[in-house]
Amino acid sequence: MLMPAHMVSHNGGERRCGVEIEFAGIGVEAAVTCVTALYGGEASIESRFLAHVRGTRSGDFTIEVDASFLQDDGYRDFLARLGLDIDALDWRRPLEELLADLSAVVVPLEVCTPPLPMRELPLVEQLIKALRERGAQGTGQSFLYAFGMQLNPEAAALDAAYILRMLQAYLVIARERDPRAEIDITRRLSPFVKPFSKPFAAFFTNPDYAPDQRTLIDDYLRLNPTRNRPLDLLPLLAHLDRERVMAAALEPHLIKPRPAFHYRLPDCHIDRPDWTLADAWNGWLAIEDLAADRERLAHALRHGA
């Protein structure tokens, strides 16, 4: 796997990246076995929907059925149109029973790695392969499987100028190639991975825009107070000013402040042997490379290419 030009983090250490992988087809115990086989550690299975692998050489892993997106009104409407009415469920039933019903249909199992040194990311490829061999299913296996993968690359710096360049680089690349063009139809129809609005993109790609940290945060929240974007800056901005972000964000209870970008990949084709983390990672590196090349980025902002 290729590595970014800037390998040193904002705090002077080697940059790290967490990975979140969503899939169906296997249970928590099988996923835990895959993790411990590669990373070691001590498994703690708390229920059929939640487990931890602690004390590995890389840190602590979480394996869980992720039902948090069922709180999204848009996704509930989407499921209702497909004949699955979440609101019609008997929510008085024990949570485990409800999740048992939902996890077989729409709720993904998710493996969350700790922040890994970027040079160790190739080992995640082995984890993906192990999960696939166990029977993990990705987005294409069902019309209802709106699963994705997420990268959490640690920021190389925390100043407003650097964060803005990263956002601008993403917006330029998204403008040149619609990031939804090759997305599985389930993800395109669901409310996830919505692109930034045109007014947002126009505002932040203005070549004369040069905010300080407070202005950058306020403008971002004013134009985009939601986490459901391909490049979500809210965890990073909340790390810088938690009170300001939590007061204005639409989903403050779902924001985990950390000095990292939150990059949502729209599909997870874990069941396909030709689908690799490297392909997704190279898409992130394109953003990093453009942000680091200030002359090329400035030209793209001023000339629209």
What does this molecule look like?
The protein has 305 residues and is an alpha+beta fold. The protein has one domain (16-303). It has 12 helices and 9 strands. Strands 1, 2, 3, 4, 5, 6, 7, 8 and 9 form a 9-stranded antiparallel beta sheet that branches. Strand 2 (42-47) and strand 3 (50-56) form a beta hairpin. Helix 1 (28-39) packs antiparallel against helix 4, helix 5 (160-176) crosses helix 12 (294-303) and helix 9 packs across helix 10 (242-248). The radius of gyration is 19 Å and the shape is globular.
Distinctive features:
305 residues; alpha+beta; nine-stranded antiparallel beta sheet; 12 helices
In short:
This protein is of the alpha+beta class.
Task: Write down the domain tally.
Answer: 1
Mean pLDDT: 84
In total, how many beta strands? 9
Structural class: alpha+beta
The number of helical segments is 12
Give the uncertain stretches in residue-range form. 141-145, 179-189
Taken as a percent bin, the fraction of beta residues is 5-15%
Give the overall shape.
globular
Query: Nearest-angstrom radius of gyration?
Result: 19 Å
The percent range for helix content is 40-55%
What is the chain-wise order of helices and strands? Answer: EHEEEHHEEHEHHHHEHHEHH
Q: Largest beta sheet, briefly?
A: 9 strands, antiparallel
**Oligomer state of the chains in this structure:** single chain
Calculate the terminal CA-CA distance, rounded to whole Å.
27 Å
